[in-house]
Write a structure and sequence with these properties.
Layout lengths: L5 E6 L7 H18 L2 E7 L13 E2 L3 H4 L5 E4 L2 E4 L24 H9 L4 E4 L1 E3 L9 H9 L3 E4 L2 H8 L8 E2 L18 H10 L5 E5 L5 H9 L8 E5 L19 E3 L6 H9 L3 E4 L2 H9 L4 E3 L17 E3 L6 H6 L8 H22 L6 H9 L1 H6 L3 H8 L7 H18 L1
Parallel strand pairs: 1-2, 1-4, 2-3, 4-6, 5-7, 6-8, 8-9, 10-11, 10-13, 11-12, 13-14, 14-15
Length: 420
């Protein structure tokens, strides 16, 4: 038996006011403790956060160099975090210049895990398939090739990372938020939820509407057919305040609109969604939570492209009503039993967390040598850039940074492949 609690690092954007991002650590902690016993989960993001102003403690990535060697497992994600574009949220960036943005919260921790021989696990994130720069290829090659277990949440992400894998296949898993039902007992609403309902006047059936722009057609539809919807209240719910969601966006465009007094704790927000007659919006995790609890989803996003393809195939996701028959909309309202697809997603995630627990229990990975050899090669590769060539590159403003990096990374990629 172990004489200490396992120390697990979970990496993502848990320092942002975004419902989905805040769910991941809550679900991971519950699943890991069920399988591994006493676990201390360290939630790493750019910025430190602490209760009571935040749902849980978040550790700044500035602490990772000090703490990294003491971790027993590293989980990357979930969420849409395997990306290189600089725009994540307005004003969001690393707390120190030495931390690269945005790979500082996903790729660098992965490499540090390998450096210390820590089991590296990809916890069903999404990949930005539109932009993987060439300089990152050898680093991704190293990280992916030596990971213990790699799962992603959509086929596009699976295809984007496939070229970095030669042995262990990349597993396609549902988003881990499909496990939210394991944290809530919908048959027994919490005291906080009952208080919120009473304070907000939610004493009848209601429809959750994500407080975003772009729902004009739906708002017009509701106004036009308000008589058929007179038994329902509408709740303006910001899902991602950091992304611009705000109750004021909807103004008074919906009859009987209810605004909550504060942005709820993520588990309370999940309860609000779980008891709705329907949800309307574009949020990935608004849709997932609703599907998990048998609540119909009217989605403004296109589920045939990008990360949203992970939502395709669920029977109770519908397009936003516009000029459709109002009875079509009304007949689909109401909470029901979760669909077979939603139940299957939960079951798949049971296997996912079982696999994670197994890989963590195996202990050290022995990846230190691969990282050491990788680092050992750097001086020689850098020196191989001829002085004349370097001077020429430095005199070109458009190439003085990117060209040397590409030259070095091409050689690093070749090196990594020869070491495998």
């Amino acid at each position: 038996m172990r004489d200490r609690a396992l120390q697990i690092g979970l990496f993502g954007t848990f320092d942002l006011e975004n419902y989905g991002d805040l769910l991941f650590p809550l679900i991971a902690e519950a699943e890991l403790r069920e399988r591994l016993g006493t676990v201390t989960l360290h939630r790493f993001s750019y910025n430190a956060r602490t209760p009571p102003d935040w749902p849980y403690t978040v550790t700044s990535l500035t602490e990772l160099p000090r703490m990294g060697g003491h971790l027993d497992g590293v989980l990357i994600g979930g969420g849409f975090i395997v990306r290189f574009g600089k725009t994540i949220a307005d004003g969001y960036g690393p707390p120190a210049p030495a931390i690269h943005h945005p790979t500082g919260y996903w790729l660098t921790p992965a490499l540090i895990a390998l450096q210390h021989g820590i089991p590296l696990i990809w916890n069903a994130p999404s990949v930005d398939c539109n932009y993987i720069p060439g300089w990152a290829d050898p680093l991704l090659q190293l990280a992916i090739a030596h990971s213990r277990y790699i799962a992603v949440r959509d086929e596009a992400s699976q295809a984007a990372l496939a070229r970095f894998v030669e042995k262990e296949p990349i597993v396609l898993m549902p988003d881990t938020a499909f496990g939210i039902s394991r944290l809530l007992d919908e048959r027994c609403p919490s005291v906080e939820f009952n208080r919120l309902r009473q304070a907000s006047g939610l004493n009848g059936p209601y429809i959750v509407v994500q407080a975003i722009r772009g729902l004009d057609s739906f708002l017009g539809f509701v106004k036009k057919h308000s008589d058929l919807l007179r038994d329902f209240r509408f709740v303006a719910l910001p899902i991602g305040p950091v992304l611009g969601d705000h109750e004021a966006i909807l103004e008074d465009d919906l009859p009987g609109l209810i605004r909550l007094p504060v942005w709820p704790h993520p588990l309370l927000l999940a309860q609000v969604i779980s008891q709705a007659a329907a949800v309307v919006g574009e949020s990935y995790h608004l849709a997932i939570t609703a599907l998990t609890f048998g609540v119909p989803v009217f989605c403004s996003a296109d589920v045939t492209v990008g990360k949203y393809t992970g939502l395709a195939g669920f029977e109770t996701i519908y397009p936003l009503p516009k000029e459709t028959d109002p009875l079509w909309f009304v007949s689909r309202l109401g909470k029901r039993a979760p669909t077979p697809a939603a139940l299957a997603a939960r079951e798949q995630l049971t296997q996912h967390w079982d696999r994670i627990a197994t890989e963590i229990n195996k202990g050290s990975t022995g990846t230190q040598r691969a990282v050491s050899e990788f680092l050992q090669s750097l001086p020689g590769l850098l020196e191989s850039v001829q002085s004349a060539e370097l001077r020429s590159l430095l005199t070109s403003p458009s190439w003085k940074v990117t060209a040397p990096a590409r030259f070095v990374m091409r050689n690093l990629k070749r090196l990594v492949r020869t070491q495998k």
